Every structure is written in structure tokens, then in C-alpha cells.
Amino acid sequence: MRLTLLALLLSTACALPTVTPDAVAQPKGQEKPKEKGKPNRLAKESSPYLLQHAHNPVDWYPWGPEAFERAKKEKKLIFLSIGYSACHWCHVMERESFSRADVAKILNANFVCIKVDREERPDVDDIYMTALNTTGEQGGWPLNMFLTPDGKPIFGATYFPPDDRKIGDDTVPGFKTVLNKVMEFDKDRADLEKQADRVAKATVEALDANSRAIALVPLKRDLVSDGLDAFDIDPEHGGTGSKKRDYKGTKFPRPPVWGFVLTQTKKPGNERLAKLTHNTLAKILEGGIYDHLGGGFHRYSTERTWTVPHFEKMLYDNAQLVELYSEAYALAPRPEYKRVVAETLEFVRREMTAPEKGFYSALDADSNDKEGEFYVWTADEVAKVLGTDADTAIVKAVYGVTAPNFEDKFHILRLPKPLAEIAKELKLTEDALLTKLEPLKKKLFDHRAKRERPFLDTKVITAWNGQMIAGYARAGGVFKEPAYVRAAADAADFLLTKLRDKDGRLYRMYAAAPGGKPAPKGAAFLDDYAYLIHGLLNLHDATGEPKWLDAAKGLTDLAVKHYADPVNGGFYFTAADGEKLFARAKDSYDGVQPSGNSQMARNLLRLGTKTKDEGYRDRGIRTVKAFSFALRTAPTSMPLMLRTLDELLDAAGEPDKPAPKEEPKAKKPRKSEDVVTGKLTLEPAKGGVREFAVALTVEAPWHLYANPAGADTLAESRTEVTVFVGGKKVDAKIEYPKGKEIADKVVGAYAIYEGATTIKGRFPAGDGEIEVRVSINACKDGVCLPSSTLKLK
Asked: Where is the secretion signal located (predicted)?
């Protein structure tokens, strides 16, 4: 089928962002033009991200009815591209493809092109990202999707290189090739429409998965304890990850996780958990993800040790981490926690605070079109700026300026060990070392300030400002610092004055179009209400002033009126009277930011306690119940909801589940990969072919379904092997062993693998990393774990 071939083509292109920027370096002669081209429709927008594309030769439309009406009238597919202003790969694709006349010619003649800022329209981003994930693709930005004229998703991917590229013996299709393929497939529009209907249906089902009906899962302490056990914490470098993969790969701080885990460390018997948690907090603030000169946190680490970050600085990360480290200090008053809060809030005051006292959104990762250039150093540059050998020696010792740790030539400053240990090695007290460091840091900071600065996104987003208000207020209360509380109050006054309409409803943001004055814009979403209410409640905690509680109550009542689901409980992401997309999401994932539902549940319980109003408390409990099935089946996806449930049970007087006196017992299996291990064996290439064997071991009493499984109803649950070379799926011939036959009167005879099983196969030899993926579904006695994919390299 032609769509299957295109999906393979797209998945190949989508794999490229996982490699280093050097591997997808911009071809010569395709640099961004120095002079801007003619402005397009985006030139009238206020979004900095859209304005970054305002002089592309692509005939961009902003999201709105005009684009869809044209697509329907001209019977054209829509090309939708979503990103944000601080996104490195968005910049790369803008330079490589959207600035090129030959690419624009194809797009303009055959598609209606829409650009979306995901920070302006998180509802659009969430729905189409979910659609992408339902097709089996990994999400990321830029998110590029092809849609029908009525907005249904057909297929998509993330970054595309502009032209075909040779990698070994394979050709990776470029963006122009993809566009031409889509145009070819569009000759059979009926086929594409059917594909769009399937993806749209799958998207709706995925969005409803966690709250389609209220599950009969009791709100008991074991939900909290089992949920806590489900987090796999890296014992060496901190953070969460997969023990089977040695915790390798990208790490996000995910403050909702550590906010929940931190609350559990104070409970009896959780001493080991406390050690792991504070190790995580220490490793994050010691790593390169923290800006040791200017304060503030970058977005995430690209590897296990928190050394090499993705260099954006997002308001929401810094807001939540300020609150987290303040709460950590309240439990364990370590001086480094206080220092990191003070330095981060100084960064926010200096670089992220608007004249009106609201907070800007983000700082870019790039300068001069190079990621991280503003923040990295060479050893010679450090020595030249500091001037003396003694000063240079101190800085190099403190910040690990020995071997380069970025692109083989630059240094990202980080603490290779705790500052107290470094001070001891230098025969100084920690305070004395900090005193010595201050003027040296200032020299480096002042020198850095002369470099080309990263782009500052000056949108003031209501939701993120609410989080920053919460962080400032919590820090003010913990550290007894009036200036922090005052900053939170000033920002709250600004939002409550400038970002509400005549009915008191919130706007999404405060931004200015080129040459214009900032103004409120866009309907608010659930997270705008949820996060701002959280900030106001923290302000009430810090000050005791009734006006903050009254404001929180008023916004909560509006959120209930316009966003609540009166049937199943919980809240929708968009208002009932908002723009109608092909699906209406009810967010439930506490990722780098908490979901609106988790935050609202906690807000409602806090309001109930503060006001003695059982109505708020009851709605909060109902919201937790609406997601109780997710807490049982996927607890790591909702850490803030776990924290909320724990606080609810504490308030109700339900005792904590006793912690084990001995070493923790083995965790209950949560998914199929927890009861299956795999080992890959590769033979040397012969005649252009490589043979392999995958040895699977299935823990008793679990089994896997064989391939073939026998019964038609089990076809989707069968064990299946696919092979990837250099990130591209290859045509492999797999030899599945015959399974053990089971007779069943209901489903008929079927076959299983149990114990040890070996699957063999062969594939064309090629260059690049070899990865064998094994799709498995482990079952026993009529109970099945969620399916998994083992990735063996």
C-alpha cells in the first residue's frame, strides 16, 4: 500500500534529529540570507516564533479560518508546522528549508501552509502531537503534519533535512522528496481521507484513554506507595530512567516528579529514598544544565550526567525548580539549595522580568545560529579573561575545565564534585571558596555578556507566570525574604489587572506585534487558570492576605464553569465555548509541567482546606477519582496527582503504608518489559548479509504470544521483531520458533513462548548503529501487562 511506503519514508527522515548537529550540518550555499525577503502574512503577528518566519518565501498562514477556507476551496492538503521561538531544530529547518525559494515554490503551489507557535496554541500542538504518536512516530519540534482541508491529520514527522542525503549505502529522503511523494499520493485523495479518519479516530481514543469513564479504583494508600515504587531512580547521577539501559539518554528535571518524591522522603522508613532524592537535586545543580555564572536552568540534559544541556532557558522550568529547591531546603536546609534559588531568582529579575512586572517566556538555545555558543568556553579564553595563573587554577578546579566536554573543543562549566569537597581539596572553607569565586565569576560573566545574546521571547504567558509567582512566593516564605514575596505580588497584580476580560476570564498571553504596544491576546486554556491559581494560593500562604485567596476562588469558579467535565469529572483543556477542533483534549500527563487536571485537583483540595468549603474539596476528590485508573496503570505519568492523593489521604487520616524494614522487595511488574529480558547476538557480515539471534527470557509464570499466534484475535499481541540500521528500518527475514500450543475453548488454539526462546534472522548489511526491536505482550492466567518494545543494540 502506498501509505505504508510513505510512512517508512517519513520515519526514516524523522530519525535524523536524534543525531548530533554536525551529522546534519547545513549544506554550503543554503545559509540564511543576510537580507530579509518580502514579508508574508506572519509579519503582522505578535508571536516571536511566527515572526522568525515572517520573511520566508513560504506563503504562511497563521492558524485560523482563512487558511482552512482556502484549502477547502482549492481542494489542497494543509502543511502544518508547529514550533516555538527557543527551539534549536526549528531554527535549523527554517534556515535550511523554509528560507529556500525552491522549497517554497513546491509548498506554495501544492499546499496551504500554516505556522503555529505551540506556546500560543498548546491545544493545537497537543492534539497533533498526539496524532503523530498514534502513528508510531516519536514526537518533537518542529512538528510537521499533513492535514486534510478540514484539519484531520494524515501523517507527519519532526525535522526534515532539505535534500536527500547519503548515509553509507542508504539515501535519507529530504523535505523536497517528501513533498513530492505526498503530492503523488494525493492523486488518490480518497485513500488519504481514509487514512486521516483512522488517525483522527485513534487520536480521539488516545486523548480519552485516561478519563473515558471513572474506573472503580479505590483511592487508597497503595496507589501512592505502588506509584512511588514505579519510579526508577538513577543511584549514581540522579534523575529517573531505565535501569536496563544503564539510565543512559536524555534527562529532564521533571519537577512534578521530584515534588512528589520529596514529600515521601519525610515519611518513616524512607531514608534510602531521601538519599536518592537529594542526590538527584545535587547532581542537577552541579551539572552543566545549571548556569553557574548567570544563574538559572537550561531545559534538559542530553545525556545521563546532566553535563551537556539543550541550552534554552524556559520560564516554566526555572519557576518550578525555584519552588522545588525552596521546598527541599525547608526539609533539608543545605546551603547549596538556598544559593541556587537566590542565583536563579536573580537571573529571572535581571533577564526575564518585564517592565510591567510580568515574566518573559524564554531565552533561545542559539547565538549566531550555533547552539550553546553564548554559554561555552575554551580553556585559553578562561585563562585570558582571568589574567593570572592562580585565579585560572581556582576556576578550572571548581568548574572542571580540564578535558573539553562539548563538541570536543569547548567547556560547559559544571561542578565535577560538591563544592564542599572542592573547597577541602583547595584547603579552604566553603564560604572562603565562594568569596574567592565571586569576583572571578563576575569577570567571566561580564566577558560573556559582550557576546551575541540568545534571542529573548518577550511573550508574557499567563500559565507560566502563575508558576513563577508560585516559585517566588514559596521562596519568600521559606527564606523569609520580602523581596521575593513582593515580586510575586507585583506579577499577580499585573496578571489580574491586565490579562482578564470584562467578565473576569483570563487571556492566554500579553504580547506586542512589530511596532505595536503589548496587549492581551488569545483565550486562556486550563493550565492558565490552574497554574495561576496555584501561584495565588502560594501567595496567600506567604502573606495571609485575603485578596489572594479571593482571587484564587474567583478563577477556580470560572475554571469549573467553562472547563469542567460534568459527567466524568476532571477538566478539559479548552473552554466549552472555545474553538472546536476535531478532538477535545483532557490533559493528564505530568511531564516537565504538571497537567491542568493534576494542578486543579490539588488547587481544589487546598481551597477546600483554606475556605472550609466542602464543594471545592468534593470536586477535587472527584477529579482525582476521574484519573484513578491512570494512577493504577501508569502512575509515573501523573506524579502531581499522586502527591495530591497522598495529601488527600493524609488529611483524611489514613495511615501511611509501613515502609519495609529490610531492603525493598522486587517491584511489581508494570509492563511487559519488566518480566522479559533480551540479548542480541550479531554475526559478521557475509556476502552483504548479517545474521542475528535474539535470546528472550520470560519470567515464570508469564508467557508471550508466539508468531504466528494461531488465533486471529491474538494477531496484534504476537511477538514481532524489526531491525533498524542507522535509524532506518530495513527489510529483515525473521525466523520465529514454533510456540507451545495451548487449547482454549473460547479463542481457539494458540501458541506461546515461555521460559527461554531464541528468534533468528538476517538483514542487509549497512553502515550505522544496529538496533533490533522486539514487540512483546506478557500475559498469565488471563491477565496481560501493557505491551512493550525491547530495543536491543
From this structure: 1-25
